[in-house]
Amino acid sequence: MANFVKVCALGDVKAGCGKSLELNGKAVGVFNIDGRIYAINDVCGHRGGPLAEGELDGTTVICPWHGWRYNVTTGENELLPSLPTQKYAVKVEGDDILVDLE
């Protein structure tokens, strides 16, 4: 069963950027790609870097610490597909971004 919680306002995540959030003890990265919002686990599987602080290249976020690459729409690790990150369901209601942390 989905359990969506408000994480921030739509205006808090600028187009082409990510935002790091701590939600219920989980690090979550929220990304705005051409007005579409995505959310993934914000911890890189390599050394724990904050993914939302990385550079976006299309739908790929590049970890700012060592360059691991994750597709924010799927959670796929583009360098090591066997090590994906968690992707979270997202919905936008009015000006609010909601994420299902389950």
Q: How would you portray this structure in words?
A:
The chain is mainly β. The protein has one domain (4-100): Rieske [2Fe-2S] iron-sulphur domain (Rieske Iron-sulfur Protein, 3-layer Sandwich). Helix content is 0%, strand content 47%. The chain contains no helices and nine strands. The protein has strands at residues 4-9, 17-23, 26-33, 36-41, 55-57, 60-62, 69-71, 87-93, 96-100. The strands form two sheets. It has a six-stranded antiparallel beta sheet with strand order 1-9-8-4-3-2, with no helix packed on it. Strands 5-6-7 form a three-stranded antiparallel beta sheet, with no helix packed on it. The termini are close together. The mean pLDDT is 95.
Helices and strands in order:
Elements: E1 4-9, E2 17-23, E3 26-33, E4 36-41, E5 55-57, E6 60-62, E7 69-71, E8 87-93, E9 96-100
Features:
single chain; 102 residues; mainly beta; Rieske Iron-sulfur Protein; six-stranded antiparallel β-sheet; three-stranded antiparallel β-sheet; 9 strands; globular
CATH superfamily: Rieske [2Fe-2S] iron-sulphur domain
Structural class: mainly beta
* CATH architecture group name: 3-layer Sandwich
Instruction: Please give the alpha-carbon distance between the first and last residues.
Output: 8 Å
Number of strands: 9
Order of helices and strands: EEEEEEEEE
Shape: globular
Main beta sheet: 6 strands, antiparallel
| Approximate helicity band | under 10%
- List segments where confidence is low: pLDDT < 50 over at least 5 consecutive residues: none
How confident is the prediction overall: mean pLDDT?
95
Q: For this structure, what is the CATH class?
A: Mainly Beta
- What strand order characterises the main sheet? 1-9-8-4-3-2
- The name of the CATH topology is Rieske Iron-sulfur Protein
Beta fraction = over 45%
- Quaternary organization: single chain
